[in-house]
Amino acid sequence: MVNFIIRRLFAMVITLFFISIISFILIELPPGSALDAEIARLQALGGNLNLSQREALEERYGVNDPIHAKYWKWISNAVQGDFGNSFQYNMPVTQLIWGRLGFSIMLAGSSILFAWLVSIPLGVYSATHRYTIPDYVITVLQFIGVAIPEFLLALVLMVTFESVGGLFSRDMETAPWSFAKFVDLLEHLWLPVIVVSAGSTAWLTRVMRANLLDVLNQQYVQTARAKGLKESKVIWKHAVRNALHPLIMTIGGVLPALIGGDVVASIVLNLPTAGPVFINALRNQDMYLAITFLMFFSLLLVIGNLIADLLLAWVDPRIRLE
Amino acid sequence: MAVQAGSADDTRAVAKKDKQDAGQMSQRQLMFRRFKQSKLAVFGLIVLFLMYLMAAFSSFLAPYDYDAIDSSSSYKAPTKVVWAGGPAVCGEVQTLDEVNLEWKYANDCTKTYPIQFFNRSYPYKLFGLIPTNIHLFGVPQQPADANAVPTEGQARPAKLYLLGGDKEGRDVFSRMLQGSRVSLTVGLVGVIFATVLGSILGTASGYFGGAIDNVMQRVIELIGSIPTIPLWAALAAALPGNISVVRRYFFITLILSLIAWTGLARQVRGKVLSYRTADYTSAARAAGGSHMRVILTHMVPNAMSHIIVVAALAVPATILAETTLSFLGFGMQAPAVSWGTLLQDAQSIAVVTRYPWLLLPGVAVVLALVCYQFLGDGLRDAADPYG
Fold first, then answer.
1. Which has fewest Cβ within 10 Å: A54, A56, B100, B182?
2. Closest approach of chain B CAs to the CA of A315, in angstroms?
3. Domain spans of chain B, in order of start
4. pLDDT tens digits for A146-187?
5. Domains, chain A, ranges and CATH?
6. What is the ipTM of this complex?
7. What is the separation, in whole angstroms, between the first and last Cα of chain A?
8. C-alpha span between B364 and B359 (Å, rounded)
9. Quick check: bond before B87 cis, omega within 30?
10. Global pTM value
11. Does the beta carbon of A252 lie under 8 angstroms from any beta carbon of chain B?
12. Does A302 reach chain B within 8 Å, measured CB to CB?
């Protein structure tokens, strides 16, 4: 197991290295250098830049360096926790992201929990009551759940429940953390969780239903029935356990949807998560900020996949030996 | 068994006939028969066909120019259609609400104006080729007050805004029709790009194995470890802002397919891997067939039905991605319209509560996506008609 974890961690570092290269290319892609934007901003503030200031900035962003040197400058700073400056907010990127990312992680985590808690029972019910009316209802809901854009669902739910979005009531927004604030958070959390996890829940329900139907045809299920076990025991102990295995594997596929869903839904729902800042940074070509978010989203995803792999290896010993 | 409309006897006869013929049917016929059995898939196919037809004839069906601004129709509620010896619209009286500074509309149904079919209105080019000005339906404005600012209290024929007007007073129905051209094709074209790319790379990866396969798998994993929507948004944000609509459309489809190919390549690779060791492949190689020949005559046709299924199931995700990108402001940009850009108008909850018809493009998105899923599922069942 230790060996397996070390191997996976090593692969993770390599992946992150390549992601950093892609991210860096994205910083360099937009026409005009990041520095031009910074200079324009400083000039707009009224100050005329003298030559030494300009040179200091050029040195800071390595405008005249060859591309690999630029990358090295950026990545070595990034590893030390300095992701450059946000031009838009004029402060270090690091100061901007932590709180936002925290809420994003919380939302993604709650959403995946919710998706599992809903999709497993629904999928089991749907598979054991195949071709009944509730099964058809669940199937139709699945199709719609996958098809509806997050932002549209958010708008519809907000109109229906007369919600204004957000994660806190107005008077709680700036209050220090307390039990009351936590309760307030829970009261607001359900709507974003439903919005973000709708697509994934629908998808996982479909996977669960298909898996369980496969498993129910296996002979050991027949054996379990033949030896006189209660049907509930046959389903939950013998069949569902084996059907869960592919469901864990799909975490890797669901996570990008959850993170993307958070980005989109947070705009409509006014969430204090990473989404709105990320989108705003992209709109204003505040590339260092945007790319740092992209890096951290990827990091979340890679860690999520690692956790899924570990879970899978824990559930299924065959994986460890591969 | 096939269940078709008609009396019970008919159904039984058809079912019997199908059973007898099954042994003599070609695979293609079997696939078609299986596809027809899935009613949802047929329903999806028909609805999608109608939607694409409407997109092709969007200017003919649209009673108004999608980009014609009319400040007096700002946020106009959907027009009520009445019956007066034929469908007609009421007269309309406009008054200014001086408290909220809003235009208020009152219907004056004492005088009605019939809806004319095949009437002549703004000019356009059918399929971008044939210049004409005939539209399926419309309510002609009297020439005298066509451009005149309506005076208060004076009745005039209401504009026929079936699905209401947007902030600039443009007809939402006409805009949705125009938007469907981008929204319905971006996904399709993007998936076609992705399918070509995914098929070539997936086949190469599965057939040759070794280093090529290894590199390809790592690249796919790498792309998979960046969240899709943020990556799409970052790529689209890097597009220069001043490019033409056509080039933007092209780039957006390219960006969408840049990520969508990975899933397809993976599926094709899996299929090719299983065929590679099949006896007929060895036989073809032993008979002196080149790699190219084996790939083109054995691998690709074998994997074709599978490729089509996976591609069909990838289309809805791509349409959704375009809608989301456009909604966020990174996709198509004004003056181009897609369902996503239309939904941008519905971004704030205050607007949606008061003018709910602005959400209707979203209904179109959901309908198209659901139908594509029905179709994809039906194709998947049909691809394996022996199961």
1. B100
2. 23
3. 79-160, 173-382
4. 888 888 888 888 888 877 777 777 666 666 777 777 787 887
5. 94-321 (1.10.3720.10)
6. 0.81
7. 11
8. 9
9. no
10. 0.82
11. yes
12. yes
